[in-house]
Amino acid sequence: xxxxxxxxxxxxxxxxxxxxxxxxxxxxxxxxxxxxxxxxxxxxxxxxxxxxxxxxxxxxxxxxxxxxxxxxxxxxxxxxxxxxxxxxxxxxxxxxxxxxxxxxxxxxxxxxxxxxxxxxxxxxxxxxxxxxxxxxxxxxxxxxxxxxxxxxxxxxxxxxxxxxxxxxxxxxxxxxxxxxxxxxxxxxxxxxxxxxxxxxxxxxxxxxxxxxxxxxxxxxxxxxxxxxxxxxxxxxxxxxxxxxxxxxxxxxxxxxxxxxxxxxxxxxxxxxxxxxxxxxxxxxxxxxxxxxxxxxxxxxxxxxxxxxxx
Length: 310
Prior knowledge:
By secondary structure, this protein is an alpha/beta fold. It has helices at residues 16-36, 73-83, 89-105, 110-124, 129-144, 150-161, 174-184, 213-225, 243-248, 259-267, 288-309, and strands at 59-62, 165-173, 188-192, 194-197, 200-205, 234-237, 251-255, 271-273. 49% of the residues lie in helices and 13% in strands. The longest helix has 22 residues, at 288-309.
């Protein structure tokens, strides 16, 4: 699977490598979505405000880490690979430290993520793509399923119920992201694309990690291929690094936002929602239907979790 999720220092605008990474991710996402169409949700239930029922030129784009899922997919995946003896204890200590930093700081640290990216590339080099995909399914059940934010999941479901496609957009490997998207019943995923030859990872990337401007390029490329109207689309993220992606769409949402994104969202009247505490965050124009859906989703998830633990 492409690497384990790899962030490079922030850039103000898209570079040629950003465009390449975005286009490669969009192509991979469209291929994976064809396999997921059979899992399409049932007939939509009308939403009074947003998303608009039956608007097939609208779609939703969700960041993954700390937006859809608590923590970083990369680090949860690293735990699973360690359990399967892909690397040594000293490497696990690095993953643990990076995950602890991510959870405490609530933001992406380029230095930590760069280290994780380099480690990931060396770990997966020489392994088959199919092998890592199969392991990813197991790791989702072991470490990720119970870390999905119910509120964000409800927002995604509202788009699905309206008949719209929903995509994950993440710096994590596209293979990991595709597994998560499938398990959540989403359309597909845009993620970092690792080079493979004859189904075996080479240890190199196609372009650069899908981060910052590259995410915006991926969304732009996918929207063009899918004939979407970005002014009618929505995007969701926790990080100010995703402001380029959020700025592309007509309905940007700040979910569990870091301080810079929270300020930007308030300055531009973007909608905010915070699921990290029982207290609702200050919000701007949150649709009533989305709020009801978040509560219902959270309640259902809590009941399911309680039953599993009994």
